[in-house]
Amino acid sequence: MVSSNAGNTVDSEFESLISRELGQQRSTAPSTSSTTSTTPATPPAKRGRPRSEAVESSIVEGMLRLLDRGSSLAGLTVEAIAAEAGVGKATIYRRWPDKDALLLHLLTQLESKLDPICERATLRESLIAAVDSIRLNAVNRRSGSNLAMIGAEIRAIPDLYARYHETVIEPRRRALRALIHDAQLRGELRVDIDADLLGELVVGPMLSRAILHPDGSLEDPALATTIVDAVLEGIAVSSNTHPVHSDADGT
User: Fold this and answer.
1) Does a structural domain hold residue 23?
2) Which end of the chain has less neighbouring CB within 10 Å, N or C?
3) What is the pLDDT of residues 186-213, one digit of tens each?
4) How many CA atoms lie within 13 A of 149 on its CB side?
5) pTM of the shown model
6) Is the same domain home to 169 and 83?
């Protein structure tokens, strides 16, 4: 029979062993209070609403539909545009401060397909591209009734036309002037003629056909090349050609 003292000794040793094991586990376990979280902080949400191209597109298309149905530029209202586009007036005013700014955006969008006037491989190619962009724009205007109407109406709104001229027309005129001036500095064009006048000689025939002669053909893709070559080469009768005499009736 085992004495009670021996049993107590075994129990005490067993309890000591368990206590040591538990102590080691506590010492090796990571402390949750001192551990720094490695999860990246969530970035703050961006304030404001992103500019929605889809919303702007629906507003422009809504304006064009109203114009197609007979509305005039002056007769367009923000209320009617918002209703046609399926947006609220506040949506429009968040993007444009007034109706004129909205109309200017419409006009700018209609002109956005024009190729930029810039340097190309040669002066001739640069001028042909500039003149042909006028032809293509005129073709687009003739194919859409609202485009033709807008071109006629905009001059009746002086403030809007002034802003349109400054935003759309004048930058292209400055670009053409710079193109010609650089060619003059390179010795490719005469320097005794003003750069603006040379530019008008180049683009004038196409503008005349597009604006003053609505029935004049613009479908020929070689028309710009014909105009530019005629200006660059000169239109005076040379010494080895014979002038063409007019008929008696002056035709």
Assistant:
1) no
2) N
3) 989 988 889 999 999 999 999 998 888 8
4) 15
5) 0.63
6) no
Task: Look at residue 16 and tell me if it is in a domain.
Answer: no
Residue 73 lies in a domain: yes
CA-nearest of 197, 204, 167 to 180 is 197
CATH number at residue 118: 1.10.357.10
Q: What residues make up the domain containing 73?
A: 52-99
